[in-house]
Specification:
This protein has helices at residues 22-33, 45-57, 72-86, 109-136, 159-179, 204-213, 226-233, 270-273, 275-284, 299-309; strands at residues 13-17, 37-42, 62-66, 91-94, 142-147, 184-191, 244-247. Helix 1 packs across helix 7, helix 3 runs parallel beside helix 4 (109-136) and helix 4 packs parallel to helix 5. It has 10 helices and 7 strands. Strand 4, helix 4 and strand 5 form a beta-alpha-beta unit. The chain has one domain (4-195, 220-250): 3-Layer(aba) Sandwich (Rossmann fold), CATH 3.40.50. The protein is of the alpha/beta class. Bound molecules: nicotinamide-adenine-dinucleotide (NAD). Nicotinamide-adenine-dinucleotide binds at residues 17-18, 20-24, 42-44, 67-70, 95-98, 118, 122, 147, 149, 191, 193-194, 196-199.
């Protein structure tokens, strides 16, 4: 006897925002491989189109929809386009997000506003438009999954990013409480450091430090989130709502930032960590070296990472 059908997404209609590369692309691939039809939503049409093609080339059903999640009319039109193509909307993964690094005593208001506009307001606009559709359709139900961050819980990046992600976690709880009456589950996933184009500038010494501070011992890859997104998108999570599912290899458990000793090698090698990252950098046309590091990176970003982890080269 098997209960694996609990995770089956065959016939389900999904959208993923920010799905051209990185975590969003990983979520889109995972949902498609579990059987869902998936709309790849992104403001980057060139890269987003490639990801939709990639899903189709693997036998899935996918379309690309251009959308800037900070613009309410674009978000409404995006959901309409997805429903025109798929007939309904069962799963919405609200993943599009940005970080603008900089010391908080100096950062200007425009940077703050931009981060909050994408990460918090954009996530709300997408959740709202998805819920409106899920409420309209018969049967009325759906799964909304917001991508937050461990930065919602620990002070990790800077104020605009951390506060916007804390906002996503609490907004998720409020929406879960409100929309349960429509059989809409609203949950979020909080990753740690994931090797995506957002981290193409993370220096090697910092990656090594992350490995040392993470009980499961490797730097997170987009595919390390596949199980979590399938769980929250499927019937397996029908009685789960308002959850902030931390998927961090135990990173946030290591409260004293103590380098850990290992007894066996981690499941993933440093070479395997960068497979998806290199794919994404190639799609974006960004240069990268053998370690998947963009050599054009601004030195101040690399320095900010080193300072945050207390490492010197
Ligand atoms: N990489 C990490 O370490 C990490 C950790 C925790 C949480 N997250 C979160 O995961 C999500 C994805 O991060 P990532 O690392 O894959 O980022 P990424 O920069 O690699 O990719 C982000 C994607 O979102 C798209 N995007 C950005 N702004 C948009 C907008 N206004 N409208 C539509 N699309 C937009 C980009 O074009 C890109 O395709 C973000 O919300 C991020 O905050 C990332």
């Amino acid at each position: 006897m098997s209960d694996l059908s609990l995770f089956d997404l065959k016939g389900r209609k999904a959208l993923v925002t920010g799905a051209a590369v990185g975590i969003g692309r990983g979520c889109a691939l995972a949902l498609a491989r579990a059987g869902a039809d998936v709309a790849v939503v992104d403001r980057d049409a060139a890269a987003g189109t490639k990801t939709a093609e990639e899903i189709r080339s693997q036998g899935g059903s996918s379309l690309f929809v251009a959308c800037d999640v900070t613009d309410k009319s674009q978000v409404q039109a995006m959901v309409e386009q997805v429903v025109a193509q798929f007939g309904r909307l069962d799963i919405a993964v609200n993943n599009a997000g940005i970080a603008i690094l900089g010391a908080d005593e100096e950062i200007d208001q425009a940077a703050w506003d931009k981060v909050v506009a994408v990460n918090l307001t954009g996530t709300f606009l997408c959740a709202q438009a998805a819920a409106q559709q899920m409420i309209r359709q018969t049967p009325t139900e759906g799964k909304i999954i917001n991508i937050a961050s461990m930065s919602a819980t620990i002070a990790n990046c800077n104020a605009s990013y951390d506060a916007s992600k804390a906002g996503v976690v609490h907004m998720t709880k409020t929406l879960a409480a409100e929309w349960g009456r429509y059989n809409i589950n609203v949950n979020c996933i909080s990753p740690s450091y994931v090797l995506t184009p957002m981290h193409a500038s993370t220096p090697l010494v910092v990656r090594q430090r992350i490995r040392q501070l993470t009980p499961l011992g490797h730097v997170q890859r987009p595919e390390d989130l596949h199980g979590a997104v399938i769980f929250l998108a499927s019937a397996a999570s029908d009685y789960v709502t308002g959850l902030d599912l931390m998927v961090d290899g135990g990173h946030t458990l290591n409260a004293w930032l103590t380098p850990l000793t290992r007894s066996v090698p981690p499941r993933v090698t440093p070479q395997q960590e960068t497979v998806q990252l290199k794919h994404d950098l190639q799609v974006l046309g960004w240069p990268f070296d053998a370690e998947g590091i963009n050599p054009d990176v601004h030195p101040e970003i690399a320095d900010a990472f080193k300072a945050a982890f207390g490492v010197r080269e």
